[in-house]
Structure formats: structure tokens, C-alpha cells
Structure prediction request, 756 residues.
Amino acid sequence: MYVECTIFVLNKKQLRQLLRLRFYLNNINLDERLIFFTYIGRYLNRHKFNSVVFLMDNETQKVVIIDDEPTTLLLLESAVESLAKVVTVSQSANAFSVIKAQLPDLVVLDISMPELSGFEVCKQLKACPETAAIPVIFVTSHSDPENEHVALSLGAIDFISKPIDIGLCQMRVRNHLTIQDQKTKLARVNHELEAEKKQLAITLKSIADGVISINAAGDVTFINPVAQRLTGYSETEALGKPIDEVMNLRDASTNERLLNPALYALEVMRPVAMSYNATLVSRHNQVFRVEDTASPIIDEDGQLSGAVIVFQDVSEAIEMAVKMTHLTNHDQLTGLPNRVLLHDRIVQAITRCFTSKQSIALLLIDIDNFKYLNDSLGHQVGDYIIASIAKRLAKVVGESATLARVGGDEFACLLTEIGSGYSADSIAMACLQAGREPIDIDGKAHQLSLSIGISLYPQDAVNAEEMMRHADSAMYRSKSKGKDTFSFFSKDLQHAMHHRVEMEIKLRNAIENDSLAIYLQPKYNFDDSTVLSAESLVRMFDENGKVIGPDEFIPLAEETGLIHQLGKQVLQKSCDFVAKCNELGQDFKVAVNVAAKQLSNPGFAKEVAEIINEAGIAASSIELEVTESALMHDFVQTRDILNDLASLGVTIALDDFGTGYSSLSYLRQFPLNVLKIDRSFVIDMDKEQQAHDIVTAIVHLALSLELTIVAEGIETQSHFAALKALGCHLGQGYFMCRPMAMADFFTKFIDDCQVA
Prediction:
């Protein structure tokens, strides 16, 4: 859409008549420009000046989204499409060329992609002058301070966490698009001004919003309508009065009276500018932030006849700059400082510590079980909870501390007065108490809790990044201790953190190098002790060849999202083993454990089908073991995925039965074929009557549901005999056979059978 406005070109004679006016349009909005041009047109049309037409347009904002996951790409597109024109890229190798061609206002970029990582794409953007200024928001599947540090060092402005919260995503994108729009508008105005200044030459140098001329005695001889509005004096009232009386200039900080630049220009006989931070107080006590220049008026004989001051109201521009700064450094939902501003304040606090010799503390505060509340009650309620907790924490920590929102449900509190009666532990306890207060939502009280981690400088860390990282580690320790508590960072925690990092590196390398080993534990038929099936168990080895137990790396795999790749490799190796058995004429079944997060993948059933088909085996040769807790993670989605798997012919087993919280009504809704009795009941059944009764009840339940019963953890002859007597079908445990490497298992149970 184009807007037409008219201004006028002056000849040399007319220019001298209007003195040496200077035209500043840099911080004027469109409406003010139209008003200004209209006035100038009316004023100068009487002199039959020539007209020139200027055009302005309003372009639609554009966002480029790069993500290799189709689901995530669709979610991000649906979140952003109402805010801007969206261009999506699924292959990171093409990202740079698309961005360079489109030159969007914002790039939303996934970190983890197979071809080029988000970091590499970002480096390409920042290295190219055409794309270096385009803001980048990274998309990440987990909270990793190291990734965040790298991202910020590369020039990222924000993060969007997976799983995608559409509401929060929209707010983040909208904020940055708002900032970018303002930058674009300012850049466009500056660009247009330069073109206009070149086109209008000397004329546009001399015209401004407000114009006042004075004689050599300092009395007003001319005042234009804009100056009349800003000063509050009409032309009749202003003419002949001293300029200091008409134009009341004061320092914005001290309110001290300032010397008018026009008077100073008379004194020094050269152009001068107003002091920085000047305000104009009108006759009616209205205050305007102004900028100006003043020039002496020299007549044709070289005599000083007066001066002219040209000034403009920059209040709106300053307000806009303040808003932009606020949006950049504050969270929109809570109004608290964001991660960027918090980092700056931590750095400043550390710098002051060098001279003050005081300690500072950083508290990282996380709302326990927030994701469940947010998903079950809705994002609007989730936002209300976050805003409520923010208000409570702000009241607790006081104005001397910096309280920031650094993530979806994470806050941080910076204390800079440690050692002077303002202790970190007392603040932490007060925060915990504030978090325990019920929140009323639609007349129902919801009980919450917080987990807090504390890091101290200089005791625990040497810089801001390390303080954040250590506070995060301490916070997760609080979570592991049962939540609703706080923990200080310690050396043993640092050791555990380093061990975790090393373990993650080992796990990633093992997955990337396909070096995970599969061990098999046979399942014995209670009737004839035959072995026609086994459970597949994954093992990892360290650099010395020592076995790393799954209890060390499986939880880490689930936490980091690596469980999907790990589970896929285990299934592929298990299917390949079945195919090898089939080549020797042996029908064999392998049971593979499935984590809850794997069932959160809508495409899991399709992935299983592809792996089975690629191996060339029957789907009935594969048994997938799921836990009770996995079934209840997302009831509807899990049920649908299991039904899809069952339709393939895959056997579904319920593992660790009795340790979860599923009800019989739920069990009936899942396509289960096998029920496994947890070893915690089996191990005590020959010593405790209660354990024996529980196992008996589970067996009777399974038989009534026509499920195959598998008992695990059989370690003694008495276990074996008791379970056989109860009617169990299959059993596994150290009494019969320990898990063994796939090659050894094949030799013992498959190859020997074929030879025999």
C-alpha cells in the first residue's frame, strides 16, 4: 500500500528568506510527517514552489523455519503462520541458500540436524554480510547450558524448547518480529531520509519540526506552527519576547536551566547544537525531549543579524528505543529480566566482587511437575501459574536482588549481598515456602512445589556461565532428592556432573559408531525347559572394555533424547539375530524393551514395521516389552501406537507388572499378549508369604486374561519349582542362565541345536 505526500523545493532566494533551516525527519512517525508536509505545503504554496512526490510502503514480515523433523516443522509453521509469511526448509544443507534468497526478518533454526547442525548454519549466516544481521532463534530438544552458551556466542537471540509449546513459541516469535519490525522501520526511514536529503539538497538541510529565529538582541522574530505547539506560545505572543522566555530548555536529569543554543550561536558566530539530554518545558508545563541545531544569520554585507534554531520532538523515538530495549532484555509474560539481562548483571556483579571481596549467589528455581499441569490444564492456566509464581518470588527476594525468568518454568535469582545478613539459604527457604502456597484456579486449589539449586561466586565458579551451569546441576540434585527442596553446588556434584558429561559423550559415540552390544537372556519353558525365545539387553563398554550397566546410561539416554536412536539400534540388531536364526531353520523370538519416550513418537509403529521388513523376518518373531508407567504416560497415544503394532503381528508384553500404577480397567484396553512378573516379587516369594500371594494373584489374573506369563528374576530352585507349580509358562533368571553375548548365545542355543 502506498501513501502519497507532498513537499516543496525552494530556490536560492526563497532559501535565504527561510534562513538556513535544517530538516530532521529521523524519528518522526508517518502521521507526524503527513501533518508536517501538509503544513509546509500550505505555507509555501503561496510562493508557488515546485512539488515532489514521495512513496512509502508496508511490507509483510517473513520467517524461515529450518528443521529436519516434519512434525516439529509443521508445529512451528502453525505457530508462526499467523504472524508472518513462512518459508520452511527440511534439509539443513539448503538452509543458507534459501535464507540468502529470501532475506527473512527472522530465522527459526533447529540445533540437531543430520546434514549440517544448526550451529554450522548459523555460522554461515553470520559470516555473510547479507545475512549477518538476521536474528536467529534456536530450537532445542533439551536444556543444555553448553549448547545455549554456544548458541549465544554465535549470535542467537532466543531459544524454543521441544516439545513445541505453540503459545510460548508464538509469543517468542512475535516479540522478536516486533523488534525486527521496529528496526526495519527505523532502517527504512533512515534510508529514505538519505535519499530525500540528496534529492532536496540544501533545502532539506535547513528545514525542521520547530523553527525559531531571533534578532541580534535575542528576541523572537519568527516562530513556525510546530514550534508554537511545542513551546505553547502563539506567533503573536512569541514575537518580540526573549527566546529564553519562549523556549524553556532544561537538563532532563537535573532539571537545571540550559543556555539556548541560538544565543550561543550569536556569541560564537558559528553553528552549534543543543546539550545532550535536553528537554523543552512548554508554557503549559508539557515536557518534550528535543534535539536541535542553531546557526547565526549573516546578511549579504557579512553582518550578524540574528540566529535561527531548528529543533524537533524526539520523545516518541526515545520511548520506542526504551520499549525495544525492554523487549530485548525482559520476559513478556512476567515482565522480569530475561536470560540475556541476567547474564549481564551476573558479569557486573562478578566484576564488583574483585574490589568488594564479597560473595554472590545464584539461585536457579524450577516449578516441579509444571509440564503435567501445563498439558492437563492448558497453556493459559500454565501462563497464569508462571505469572503467579513470579509475583510471589519477586515479593520474597526483594528489590535488591535480580529475579529473572530464564526458561519456560525456570527462574533465577541473583543475590549480591551475601555475607551481610542476606543469606542464600534463607532466601531459598522463603522461596520454597512461597511456592507451596496453593494457587486458586477456577475455584480449585492447586498445590505446587519448587526445586532450587544454588551456586556461589567465587567459591563454586569463575564466571557467569559456570555459575549458571553449577546452579542447574544443583537444581537437578534437588529434583533427585524428592523435589520441594534446595541444594548447594558441591565438589561431589561437580564430579557427578563431569561423569554425566563423559557418559553422554561415550553414549553418543557408541550410538554413532554402532558399538552398542546386545546380550541375550534365554526364556525357559517350564514344561520341557526348551528355549525358543530370549530377552534382548543392551550393554555398553568403556575404553578399557569394562561393561557399563544399563542403569547408568539408559536414564541418560531418555533424558537427552538419545533413547530413540538407541532403541532403534537395539531393535535392528535383535531383528538381524532372528534373521540369522531363521537361516538355520530355527524359529526364534526376541523380546526388546521399549522406553516411554519411544512411545511418544507417533511414527514409532511405522519405524518398527520398516526395521522388521528390512530384516526379512515375521513380525511375530518380535516381542516389545513396555512398562506400566510407559502405558500411562500418554494413555490415548500409547493405546493407538500399541494397536498399530499389534496389527503388524508384533507381540506386546507388559513388563515389571505390579510395580506401576495401572488399573485392571486400563489393562483391558491395551492389546497385551504377555504379562511379566517383576523380579522384586519373585525374589522374596520363598521367604515372604505376602510376596508369594502377590505372585499367585498375578498368575491367576494373567490366566483369566489369557495372557502368556513370564517370570523374571528366578535365582533358586525353589523359585523355579514354585512358579512352575503356579502355572507360569516361561521363566528367566540367573538360576537357569545369565545374559550372554549374542555370539555366545547363538553358539549355545541355536547353532548347537541345528547341528544336533
